[in-house]
Design brief:
Layout (H helix, E strand, L loop, with lengths): L2 E2 L6 E2 L8 E4 L5 E8 L7 E8 L2 E8 L3 E3 L29
Antiparallel strand pairs: 1-2, 3-4, 3-7, 4-5, 5-6
Length: 97
């Protein structure tokens, strides 16, 4: 599981299973997971696909908002939004206030 970042030491993984159905806890939208996205300074995002008025729609959510419909298990992620805060709790290269 995982894809490598540019330094070959950073790995990204997800407990989201593509092709499985998930529900967004904030909107109640249910759909099939069709992709997982990892952004440099943001949370893991998941695209859900569903049929609305006989048309295929796609919505993207932060992974921790999703619950696997069959098991009831909430998605987990190691990385939440925002840039890496470094060891001192501040962004690298930006002095603390």
């Amino acid at each position: 599981m995982g894809i490598f970042g540019k330094d070959k030491e950073t790995q990204y993984g997800s407990d989201i299973v593509l092709g499985e159905r998930y529900r967004d806890e904030q909107t109640g939208i249910e759909g099939t997971a069709i992709s997982v996205h990892f952004y440099q300074h943001a949370c893991e995002r998941v695209a859900l696909e569903l049929v609305v008025d006989r048309k295929i729609e796609e919505y993207v959510f932060d992974a921790p908002r999703l619950t696997h419909i069959e098991s009831g298990k909430k998605a987990e992620t190691e990385k939440t939004g925002g840039p890496d805060r470094g060891e001192r709790g501040v962004r690298p290269g930006i002095p603390p206030r």
